[in-house]
Write the structure tokens for this entry.
Amino acid sequence: ILCSFFTGLDLVPLCVTFFVCFWEVQYGIIAGVMVSGILLLYPLARPQIKVVRDKAIVIKPENGLQFPAIDFLRDTVHKQALSESHQCNVILDCSHISSIDYTVVLGLSELLQEFQLRELCLIFIGLKAHVLEIFLAADLKGFHNFSTLNDAEKSLGELHIATEDMLSDNSILTTTGIIQ
């Protein structure tokens, strides 16, 4: 009956702790805590990201976005949409994102700038109200939010033209002073 409460991943720190305790108890406890910490923090640093190709690439992080995950998200976007062989617009589905931090805002700001410099669009959909307030307070240039995927796809052509116009103004894109 006790084994039905554990998943396979729960047994990993238990086994590590048990077997290392044969060496010395304090090392076993430390090893168990370290393995548990790794198992808890890995999903935060490497969230599951679903990528769908249609008119634009739709990227949907399955977990929230916090400090450790922004580099992984940026690498995924670079690999999928900004590589030299196939550059295309990206729709970032944020329906599963319930909170963000300052580092995520900075990372997404830099990503928006990279898209603007390449005359591409990065569109956000499904932002929750409190997350949207954070983005609006940051006053990001080129930030576009839509409630549904269909709305975002319909306006993609218009946004592409607006991005070209904004770049022709020779505006300087800076990342400092985003949130005050």
Observations:
- Helices lie at 8-20, 25-45, 70-81, 102-117, 129-138, 149-154, 156-168.
- Confidence is low (pLDDT under 50) at residues 171-180.
